[in-house]
Specification:
The protein is built from 2 helices and 7 strands. The protein is α/β, with parallel strands linked by helices and 131 residues long. A 7-stranded mixed beta sheet has the order 2-3-1-4-7-6-5. The two termini are 27 Å apart.
């Protein structure tokens, strides 16, 4: 079974997301959008089209809970349901809740250090940015 197919996004907390986003925009040239993130598009003749999202979130976000880190990596996956089932069978700490939206399907697992890892199956019609 194919598992992770790429990095879908990198998310981290900040006490002042607007200030931090402006720093990354001003000093590293990221095209930080109104929603506070940037999108890096990739793909070409020999790879699947897609994108990676970079996003700063408010320090009080609960997006990373029950993880204990101030960041979260989002991995693109080919078949979320099959992967979550495999992870459960392997004894991993899979979070029971999943989400579906216009952006695709999302599930989560905690790594051995307690970091929340987001698994994202993009919708079949188009790769999508995570909100």
């Amino acid at each position: 079974m194919q598992r992770v197919t790429g990095i879908g996004g990198i998310f981290f907390k900040s006490a002042d997301p607007q200030r931090l986003g402006a720093w990354y925009r001003d000093h590293l040239g990221l095209d930080v959008t109104e929603w506070g993130g940037a999108i890096f598009r990739w793909g070409g003749p020999t790879s699947e089209a897609g994108m990676t999202v970079w996003s700063v979130l408010p320090a009080d976000t609960d997006k990373m809970q029950p993880g204990n880190a101030a960041f979260m990596i989002n991995f693109r996956v080919a078949d979320l349901g099959a992967l979550l089932a495999a992870l459960r069978a392997e004894g991993c700490q899979v979070i029971d809740a999943t989400e579906s939206s216009e952006f695709g399907q999302f599930g989560w697992v905690l790594d051995p250090d307690g970091n929340k890892v987001e698994l994202w199956q993009p919708p079949p019609q188009r790769p999508a940015a995570t909100p």
